[in-house]
Every structure is written in structure tokens, then in C-alpha cells.
Design a protein that fits this description.
Structural class: alpha+beta
Number of helices: 3
Order of helices and strands: HHHEEEE
Radius of gyration: 34 Å
Strand order of the largest sheet: 1-2-3-4
Distance between the termini: 94 Å
Shape: rod-shaped
Length: 114
């Protein structure tokens, strides 16, 4: 019977175990750094805050202004909701404006800045 010596079997087993433990080296390490390679993550930011000028422009609002006058200060509301009682709410990222019968009735600063 031809049997490999036990020493040869142990050497082969050790080499196989070492080869499995290291994994691929070219794609796993940055060139010449010795550190594992990790792709840079793209930063994810929330929507940028509204310009500060819009917060300051809240001081220009007056009760009784028409929708056209308000649109001259704050164009393009994010959403417009109308209740069954006729209250129309224009929402911006920084404020809510409430209209009754087409005139500005109230507004709320949602930023907390005064």
C-alpha cells in the first residue's frame, strides 16, 4: 500500500487552510496600503433648508392680503389643502399660510426662529 507520510498530509492541509482563510488579495486591498479596500460611500443629505430670506419675509405678511400679494412674496407653495369649511392652507417647508375667502387669515412659522 502506498500511503503518504502523515507529515506530508499535515503540510497539504495547512496550505489549504491558509489559502481559504486569506481570500482574494488583489480586489480586497488597496495597492501598496496593506489595508482592506472600501469604496467611498456617497453622502446623503436631507433637502437643503429654505433660504433665510424666506424666514425674514414672513414679517412682510399682513392679515387680509390677497393670494396674489402673497404669491409675490412666496411663490409656489409645496402643497395646498382646502378644508370642508373653506379654510385653504398653503404649506411651505418653513411656514403655513391660512386663507379664508381668498384673503390671508393667519400664518405659522414652522422653523421656530423669531
Amino acid at each position: 500500500m502506498n500511503q503518504l507520510p502523515v507529515t506530508a498530509l499535515l503540510i497539504v492541509a495547512a496550505l489549504l487552510a491558509a489559502a481559504c482563510a486569506t481570500g482574494p488579495t488583489e480586489s480586497a486591498a488597496a495597492p501598496d496600503s496593506g489595508f482592506p479596500y472600501r469604496a467611498a460611500e456617497t453622502p446623503r443629505f436631507a433637502e437643503p433648508p429654505e433660504p433665510l430670506i424666506r424666514i425674514v419675509d414672513l414679517a412682510r405678511l399682513r392679515i387680509g392680503m390677497t393670494k396674489e400679494e402673497v404669491l409675490a412674496i412666496f411663490p409656489d407653495p409645496t402643497t395646498i389643502n382646502v378644508s370642508v369649511r373653506g379654510l385653504e392652507v398653503w404649506e411651505y417647508g418653513f411656514a403655513q399660510l391660512h386663507f379664508r375667502q381668498g384673503l390671508l387669515a393667519n400664518w405659522f412659522d414652522l422653523t421656530g426662529v423669531r
